[in-house]
C-alpha cells in the first residue's frame, strides 16, 4: 500500500484527497519508482483545483514531475536502486503522476538523475526550470547573444520566470524582469535581474510596431503581454513563448515578423526528445547555484492541496517541492 493524492470527479467538480492505494493499481509502465520528491507546477495547480482541463482520465494522481529510486524494473535500462527523474509525457494528466509515495513509469520516459543532482534539487527545478532552460537554449539556437541588448522575462517571480532570470543572468545576459509583485523586486535583483518592470506596463494593447526594446524574451504569460513583447522586440530578435498565465489568445499583426524579422519560438517541455532532455538537465545541474534547492519551499502531500490554490492566486514565489 502507499499514500497518494487522488483527484476524483464528483458532480462535475474536482475533489482532491489523500488516499491509501494498492500497488497493483499502478499499471502505467514497466518501472516502479519510490517517489523521493515531487513538485507543484502551474499545470498541477490547475489539475488539483479543477480550474483547468488538465485531467484526461479519472480518478487521477496528479504530479507532472517526480524524482526517486527504482523499486522494480522490467526495462533493460533500469535496475533496482537507480535514481531517476521524470517530467511530462502526459503523466499527472493521462497517467498517474508523482504526487504519491510510489509511481509507475514507462522506462523510456525516465532519465537517470544527472551526476551530482539530488532528487530534491531535480524537483526544485522541475518542469518549470526545465522549461526555462529549454527557452534559453532556443534563444541561443536562434543566435541571440548577450551583446545584443536586454532580454525580458515575464511572470518573473513564478517557477519558470524565476529560473529563467537566474539562467539568463548566469549566461551573461542583461535581464529585465516583469512582475505584478513589486514587493519581490529585491529578490529578483538577487537572482540576477538588472531592471524590474511592472506587469501592467506590458499588459496593454500594443501598436503593430513599438520602440525596439528587447533583444529577446522568455514569456510565461502569453495573451496581450506576448503581443506587446513582439511589437517591442528588436530587429532579428527572438521570443520564446512557453506559457499562458495571462491568457491563451494571441492578437497580433505580422509586422514584427516581416519588418523586423522577429522569431516566435514555441516551447513544449512535455514531449521533448530524450537526448535534448538529458542535455538540458545536465546544463541545469552545472548552471544553477549549489544551494538552489535550499530556496524551494518543502511541503507535504496534504499541504499541496492548499498550495495549489495559493499558486494560482499568485501567493507563492519561486519553486515548491513536495516530499511524499
Ligand atoms: N511550455 C511548456 O512546456 C511549459 C512548461 C511549464 C510551464 N508552462 C507554463 O508557463 C506558465 C508559468 O508556469 P509556472 O510554473 O512558472 O507558474 P507560476 O509559478 O504560477 O508562475 C506564473 C507567474 O505568472 C505571473 N502571472 C500570474 N497570473 C498572471 C496574469 N493574470 N497576468 C500576467 N502574469 C501573471 C506571476 O508572476 P509575477 O507575479 O511575477 O508577475 C506568476 O508568478 C504557465 O502558463 C504554465 O502552464 C509551460
From TrEMBL:
InterPro entries: Acrylyl-CoA_reductase_AcuI, ADH-like_C, ADH-like_N, ER, GroES-like_sf, NAD(P)-bd_dom_sf, Zn-ADH-like_protein. SMART domains: PKS_ER. Pfam families: ADH_N (PF08240), ADH_zinc_N (PF00107). It comes from the Bacteria. Residues 13-322 form the Enoyl reductase (ER) domain. One of its GO terms (molecular function) is acryloyl-CoA reductase (NADPH) activity. This is Oxidoreductase. The lineage of its organism: Bacteria, Pseudomonadati, Pseudomonadota, Gammaproteobacteria, Aeromonadales.
Amino acid at each position: 500500500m502507499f499514500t497518494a493524492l487522488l483527484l476524483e470527479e464528483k458532480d462535475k467538480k474536482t475533489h482532491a484527497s489523500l488516499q491509501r492505494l494498492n500497488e497493483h493499481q499502478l499499471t502505467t509502465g514497466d518501472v516502479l519508482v519510490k517517489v523521493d520528491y515531487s513538485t507543484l507546477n502551474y499545470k498541477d495547480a490547475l489539475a488539483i483545483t479543477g480550474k483547468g482541463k488538465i485531467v484526461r482520465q479519472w480518478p487521477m494522481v496528479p504530479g507532472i514531475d517526480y524524482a526517486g529510486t527504482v523499486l522494480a524494473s522490467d526495462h533493460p535500462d533500469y535496475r533496482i536502486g537507480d535514481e531517476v527523474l521524470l517530467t511530462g509525457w502526459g503523466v499527472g494528466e493521462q497517467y498517474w503522476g508523482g504526487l504519491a509515495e510510489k509511481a509507475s513509469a514507462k522506462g523510456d520516459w525516465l532519465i537517470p538523475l544527472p551526476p551530482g543532482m539530488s532528487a530534491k534539487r531535480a524537483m526544485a527545478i522541475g518542469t518549470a526550470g526545465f522549461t526555462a532552460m529549454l527557452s534559453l537554449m532556443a534563444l541561443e539556437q536562434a543566435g541571440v547573444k548577450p551583446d545584443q541588448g536586454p532580454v525580458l522575462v515575464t511572470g518573473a517571480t513564478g517557477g519558470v520566470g524565476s529560473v529563467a532570470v537566474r539562467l539568463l543572468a548566469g549566461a551573461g545576459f542583461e535581464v529585465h524582469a516583469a512582475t505584478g509583485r513589486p514587493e519581490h523586486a529585491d529578490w529578483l535583483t538577487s537572482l540576477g535581474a538588472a531592471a524590474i518592470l511592472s506587469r501592467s506596463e506590458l499588459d496593454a494593447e500594443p501598436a503593430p510596431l513599438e520602440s525596439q526594446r528587447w533583444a529577446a524574451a522568455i514569456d510565461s504569460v502569453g495573451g496581450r503581454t506576448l503581443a506587446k513583447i513582439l511589437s517591442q522586440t528588436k530587429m532579428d530578435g527572438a521570443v520564446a513563448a512557453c506559457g499562458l498565465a495571462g491568457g491563451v489568445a494571441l492578437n497580433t499583426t505580422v509586422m514584427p515578423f516581416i519588418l523586423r524579422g522577429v522569431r516566435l519560438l514555441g516551447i513544449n517541455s512535455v514531449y521533448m526528445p530524450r537526448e535534448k532532455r538529458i542535455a538540458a538537465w545536465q546544463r541545469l545541474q552545472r548552471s544553477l547555484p549549489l544551494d538552489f534547492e535550499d530556496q524551494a519551499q518543502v511541503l507535504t502531500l496534504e499541504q499541496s492541496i492548499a498550495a495549489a490554490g495559493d499558486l494560482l492566486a499568485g501567493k507563492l514565489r519561486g519553486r515548491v517541492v513536495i516530499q511524499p
